Amino acid sequence: MAMTDSIVFLNGEFMPLDEARVPVLDRGFIFGDGVYEVIPVYAKRLFRLDEHLDRLNNSLDATRIPNPYPESEWKKYLSQLVMKHDIEDQSIYVQVTRGVAKRDHAFPGDITPTVFMMSNPLKVTDTETFNKGVSAITLDDIRWQYCNIKAITLLPNILLKQTAIDEGASEAILVRDGEVTEGSASNIFIVIDGVIKTPPKSSRLLPGITRDLIVELAKKNHIECIESNFSRTELSAADEVWLTSSTKEVLPIVKLNDEMVGDGKPGPVSVNMYEIFQRYKSELKHNDD
Ligand code: PDD
What digits encode the pLDDT tens for the residues 7-30? Predict the structure, then answer.
C-alpha cells in the first residue's frame, strides 16, 4: 500500500491519509499542545495495549487534556485501524491534542480534543543490526522537567538526535546533573559484572513500555536487574549498554563517544535479553486468546 493510500483515523472517522485535514489553529500545530503514543503491532495484535493506554491516560491527565474516549472505544478504534492494513507488523501512532481554538496560551473553554491515528510498517531491529550494534554519544539533557509525559513537543529530542546523527552516531544518551537519564527516543540499560542497571522511573525520563517489559522479563528469568541511577563515568565503564523502545526493541550500543563498549560486540547479557524478548513476542503471536 502506498503511503498516501494508507487509511488513517481522524476524530472518529477513517479516511485515506491524503484526505485527512486538521485546521491550522489546532493547538498541536500552534503550541505543540498534545500527547502521543507509539504502539507496536505484531501479527496484527496490539502489543501491551493496556500499558500503552494507561500511559496515554497519564499523559492526558498530566496535561489536563480530557481523555476523549473510554478504554473500550480506544480499543475498538485501534483494532479497526490495525485490521484496515494488510501488514502483519505495524507501528501505530496515536496523537491527541487539546483541540482547535483562537491562539491564546491559556486553556480555551470547552473544546474537543483532536485525535489522529495512523499505521506504518513496523521496522524493528533485525538480527543483522542487532549483531552489529550501533554507536551513541552522550549529551547534556536539555529537555524540560516533565519527561515522563509523552508530549508531542519534541524539539529538544529532535535537536539531540540530530546532533548524534551529525556526529555519525545513532542515538544521543542524555545526562542530567551527572546522571544518565535515557536516549533521545529510547530508554537505556547497562550491564556491570553481569548485573543489569536502568535508571528508576521519574519525571526525568519516559516510563518506556519496553523498558518495563525488560525489567519484568529479567526478574522472571532470575537475571539481576536493578533500577538505580548511574553516572556518565559508570556508563563509560559498563561491560554492555543497550537501548530499548517500541520500535528498536533491544538495540546494543557497541561504541560510545568513540570508545568501544566491552569488546565492541553485543555482550552475553544483551544477547540473552534479546532472545528472551523475542521468545516472549513469539509466545504472544501463537497464543490465541
Ligand atoms: N519513543 N524515551 C523516549 C524519550 C522515547 O521517545 C521513547 C519512545 C522511549 C521508549 O518508550 P517505549 O518503550 O514505550 O517505546 C523512551 C517512540 C518510539 C517515538 O517517539 O517514536
Answer: 999 999 999 999 999 999 999 999
Q: Which residues pair with 174 in a beta bridge?
A: 139
Q: Which atom of ligand 1 is nearest to the CA of 52?
A: 14
Q: What whole-number distance in Å separates Cα of residue 33 and Cα of residue 147? A: 15
Atom number in ligand 1 closest to CA 150 = 6
Separation CA 203–CA 89 (nearest Å)? 31
Classify domain 3-121 by CATH architecture: 2-Layer Sandwich (3.30)
Domain range annotation of the chain: 3-121, 127-285
How many A from CA of 45 to the centre of ligand 1? 19
Q: What is the pLDDT of residues 88-117, one digit of tens each?
A: 999 999 999 999 999 999 999 999 999 999
- CB-based pocket (< 6 A), ligand 1: 38, 157, 182, 185-187, 206, 208-211, 244-247
- Residue 243 and residue 135: Cα distance in Å, rounded? 11
pLDDT on residue 140: 98
The CATH homologous superfamily to which domain 127-285 belongs is D-amino Acid Aminotransferase, subunit A, domain 2 (3.20.10.10)
Low-confidence ranges of the chain (pLDDT < 70): 1-5, 287-289
